[in-house]
Specification:
Layout (H helix, E strand, L loop, with lengths): L1 H15 L14 H7 L7 E3 L2 E2 L1 H8 L17 E3 L4 H4 L7 E3 L5 E11 L10 E16 L4 E11 L2 E17 L5 E8 L19 H4 L18 E10 L3 E8 L14 E10 L12 H4 L2 E19 L2 E18 L2 E12 L9 E15 L2 E14 L2 E18 L2 E12 L2 E3 L2 E3 L7 E11 L1
């Protein structure tokens, strides 16, 4: 009986991941590093893409092992100069290294979705196989220079060629280890460091990183914290427990700057309680399931959306965001929460101020190392004067199963409950005919 059960389970999973190629939403740790260090994905991850305490330390260190863990490097890099050249500088080029082979990997998802709102005239079941197919790459040029990037090849049923992000990080350019790091290129701004997009287990994004307050009105002129931006960022760690980030970016997700546009600027400050801090994690696997950490952070972002086109009319919108977040790790339980307040001075060319407030709370619990439950509750509200533009709750349950360290199966729901809106003092009843928006069965693989 056990043999038949094993066969049936493998057969079902094989059908789910048949023709698996490569998928990426936003991933920041890849099998390239598993190959380089000859270690399991679980060294840095609770379940890919969600990182454990050591994985977060590794990310903040520019995807380079700390000094005491360099013994883990098994794929030796190609040396660009001898160590003795350091003694000869400035009369010699400072030595460095490059990866022995081009460090590329891939990540993919197959999806089966159920959408009850299509019951009146559409298909309630859909197959997105593959949903997205991307290449990702990353590596280091020695101990203090690293790079990371992603190339999209297929998205939502069509070919999608394009560089999604590429950045270089120069670590410890001044002072002690990670005191000042410099990041240049196209990246997710450091304001989301408390809960980066790739740190989630759900396929949907936390509302504080994804909410576009202007979108419910026009679908244009909005901005999301998780959008990749081109620019420069300084970040670092002070005395182990304080993390900061400050940057200037093009804004509007532009890769090439527009001299007529204003630049966006942002700052973040965070504090980690306890002795481990942001950079003192060891490769010791005891950190994977027995960590006790509490981190709080706050950030601000000032930006502009210039020359927004609507019916051949162009207008500008200046906006600002203020947010905070909290992360608490206690053994197998993770508690995460965040809040973001926004103000847009002219998002719809009516010269009316748009205010917005979004927040969420989320709990993750590891029943076993391979079985994790997630529940997230979030709320968003956008308003002008005494008029509600948007007002709703989301509930996102998720069950994640690690079939292998690099193969993840998840079942996820999306429930939206609209609230009554007030417009000019009149209450507009909410319509919640189909609060269950979707249920998705997802199979992911990274290699």
């Amino acid at each position: 009986m056990n043999r038949n059960l094993h066969f049936s389970t493998n057969t079902l999973l094989a059908l789910l991941i048949f023709e698996f190629f490569l998928y990426q939403t936003q991933i920041s740790a890849i099998p390239v590093f598993a190959r380089k260090y000859k270690t399991s994905c679980s060294t840095c991850h609770v379940a890919f893409t969600k990182r454990n305490a050591f994985g977060e330390s590794f990310r903040r260190n520019g995807y380079v092992m700390s000094m005491e863990d360099t013994r883990m490097v098994k794929e030796k890099p190609v040396k660009l100069g001898a160590e003795e050249w350091k003694e000869l500088w400035p009369d010699a080029i400072w030595p460095g290294s490059i990866p022995e082979s081009f460090p590329m990997a891939a990540y993919s998802i197959m999806r089966v979705s159920y959408n009850p709102s299509n019951a009146d005239g559409g298909n309630v079941f859909e197959f997105d196989m593959p949903l997205i197919f991307n290449f990702v790459f990353g590596g280091a040029f020695g101990k203090d220079v690293s790079f990371f990037g992603g190339w999209s090849t297929f998205a939502a049923g069509q070919n999608a060629a394009g560089l999604q992000r590429l950045f270089f990080q120069f670590n410890s350019i001044v002072g002690s280890q990670n005191f000042i790091n410099l990041r240049i290129g196209r990246f997710e701004p450091g304001i989301t460091d408390g809960y980066t997009s790739n740190q989630r287990l759900t396929l949907s994004y936390p509302i504080t990183t994804d909410y576009n307050a202007a979108s419910p009105v026009t679908g244009q002129g909005g901005w999301r914290p998780r959008d990749f931006q081109s620019g420069i960022e300084l970040n670092g760690i002070i005395k182990h427990n304080i993390y900061y980030a400050a940057g200037i970016v093009n804004g509007e997700s532009k890769t090439i700057g527009d001299p007529t546009d204003q630049k966006d600027v942002y700052v973040r400050l965070a504090y980690s309680f306890g002795k481990s801090g942001f950079d003192e994690q060891s490769i010791d696997t005891s950190y994977v399931y027995t960590n006790y950490t509490l981190m709080i952070g706050a950030y601000s972002y000032w930006g502009s959306r210039n020359k927004i086109p609507v019916k051949n009319i162009f207008y500008d919108n200046n906006f600002k965001r203020f947010g905070c977040d909290l992360t608490w790790h206690f053994n197998e339980f993770d508690f995460l929460s965040g809040l973001i307040y926004g103000s847009d001075d002219n998002p719809n060319n009516d010269f009316r101020l748009l205010n917005s407030l979004a927040y969420f709370v989320e709990g993750n619990y590891s029943f076993y190392p391979w079985l994790i439950g997630v529940i997230r509750i979030e709320h968003a509200n956008a308003w002008k004067d005494n008029e509600d533009i948007d007002k709703f709750f989301n509930i996102v349950p998720n069950l994640t199963i690690l079939y292998r360290a690099n193969i993840r199966i998840s079942l996820e729901g999306a429930i939206r409950i609209d609230e009554n809106r007030s417009v000019q003092g009149v209450s507009i009843p909410a319509e919640n005919e189909y609060p269950l928006q979707a249920v998705t069965l997802n199979a992911s693989i990274a290699f």
